[in-house]
Amino acid sequence: MHRLAALLLCLITPSAFAITADELAVKNIEAKGGLDKLHALKALRLAGRMRLQNDTLELALVTLVKQPGSIRYEATLQGLTQVQAYDGSQAWQINPFQGRKDPEKLSADDAKGLGEDAADFTGVLVDYQKKNYKLDYLGTEDIDGTDAHKLRVTRPNGDIATVYLDPDHFLEIRSVERRIEHGVPVETVTDFGDYEQVQGVYLPFSSESGRKGSTDRQKVQFEKVEANPTVADSQFQFPAK
């Protein structure tokens, strides 16, 4: 009798405790503060530090994001500032570290990553249906001792983001972005941490990222985040001559 009860328990447990991709997306959105507060976040200004080359190089970092779909990165070292920006249609950069002081337009492949960063600045799962993303639940996977929920997000252009959610708080702890750049698949792993609340929305204030399989990690720590600052559209547009 006990063996029969155990067998029945094994049969019903998977369905009784099953969770869907949609349910995990809802839990993630609720954990961040809910859709109303996420939608109220129209712009962000994030200021902090970025460390490279095994922490031997530190740059001041400012990130500006503005809906719908504009983003700008500024990294400053020894008085020189590298800029990468996207205004929703065109991406461009200024890279004085390569001896280029004039703005130059970026290719469509280079623009793609910036566009996705802008669209998903509060998380790839937020409004994923409106963005026409396809969502699949892949079970759980051990991430540094945490049995994280694993979700695959497929974008209309074929790029894939694999997102790992903490099983207790349902916030992202890792993402793996797979993009086709110049005909070659490139995978970038990013670990998130130090979540803090900004105007009712929980955002990660720290991250570590790098190419999959590489030991070279880019570490970002934000120290000040402003919600809905006044940001001119010209900040994201290719500078006029």
Describe the structure in your own words.
The chain has 241 residues and is of the alpha+beta class. It has one domain (40-235): Lipoprotein localisation LolA/LolB/LppX (outer membrane lipoprotein receptor (LolB), chain A, Clam). It has helices spanning 2-16, 21-32, 35-40, 108-119, and strands spanning 43-52, 57-66, 70-77, 80-86, 91-94, 104-105, 134-143, 146-154, 160-165, 172-181, 184-198, 201-211, 218-227. The protein has a 13-stranded antiparallel sheet, covered by helices on one side. The radius of gyration is 20 Å and the shape is globular.
Please tag this protein with its features.
single chain; 241 residues; alpha+beta; 4 helices; globular; outer membrane lipoprotein receptor (LolB), chain A; 13 strands; 13-stranded antiparallel beta sheet
Number of DSSP strand runs: 13
Low confidence ranges: 4-17
Structural class: alpha+beta
CATH topology: outer membrane lipoprotein receptor (LolB), chain A
Largest sheet: 13 strands, antiparallel
Major β-sheet strand ordering: 6-5-4-3-2-1-13-12-11-10-9-8-7
- Which percent band covers the strand fraction? over 45%
Q: Class in CATH?
A: Mainly Beta
Tell me the name of the CATH homologous superfamily.
Answer: Lipoprotein localisation LolA/LolB/LppX
The topology string of helices and strands comes to HHHEEEEEEHEEEEEEE
**Helix percentage:** 10-25%
> How many domains comprise the coordinates?
1
Number of DSSP helical runs = 4
Mean pLDDT, nearest integer? 91
Coarse morphology: globular
C-alpha Rg, in Å? 20 Å
What is the name of the CATH architecture?
A: Clam
Distance between the termini: 83 Å
